[in-house]
């Protein structure tokens, strides 16, 4: 069994949707104005975004996008910086990683795991 669907409540559905499309290759499959969007990737993962006026995730909550190599992490980091997002440089932790606060009120981790064994790092 694998996780294939996640719903996030966000403050701005359209801005979050555009961000995820631009930097993480998700594609919008359906939307209802500013209140709801369905996105997916090439592997069949479905991410839904629902509008909420009170987005309040725990401090450590985040979603992650695992990359094939450190160069991909660096490339995404630089693209975000070039577009004006405040992101720290990637660091060596449980892999080569950095975090970014996404439009809509949630955090994303971009990561190349230290040891890749069937796409896991724990």
UniProtKB/TrEMBL annotation:
Q: Which domain of life is it from?
A: Bacteria
Q: Where is the VOC domain?
A: 2-113
Entry-linked Pfam families:
Glyoxalase
A GO molecular function annotation here is: dioxygenase activity
Q: Which PANTHER family match?
A: LYASE, PUTATIVE-RELATED-RELATED, SLL5075 PROTEIN
This chain's source organism reads Fictibacillus solisalsi
Its protein name is Catechol 2,3-dioxygenase
Q: By its UniProt entry, which PROSITE patterns does this protein fall under?
A: VOC (PS51819)
């Amino acid at each position: 069994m694998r996780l294939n669907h996640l719903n996030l409540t966000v403050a701005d559905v359209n801005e979050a949707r555009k961000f995820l499309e631009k930097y993480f290759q998700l594609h919008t499959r359906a939307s209802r104005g500013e209140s709801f969007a369905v996105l997916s990737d090439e592997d069949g993962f479905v991410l839904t975004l629902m509008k909420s006026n009170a987005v309040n995730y725990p401090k450590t909550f985040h979603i992650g996008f695992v990359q094939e190599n450190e160069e991909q992490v660096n490339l995404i980091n630089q693209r975000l910086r070039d577009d004006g997002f405040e992101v720290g440089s990637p660091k060596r932790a449980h892999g080569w990683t950095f975090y970014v606060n996404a439009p809509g009120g949630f955090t994303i981790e971009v990561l190349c795991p230290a040891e890749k064994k069937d796409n896991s790092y724990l």
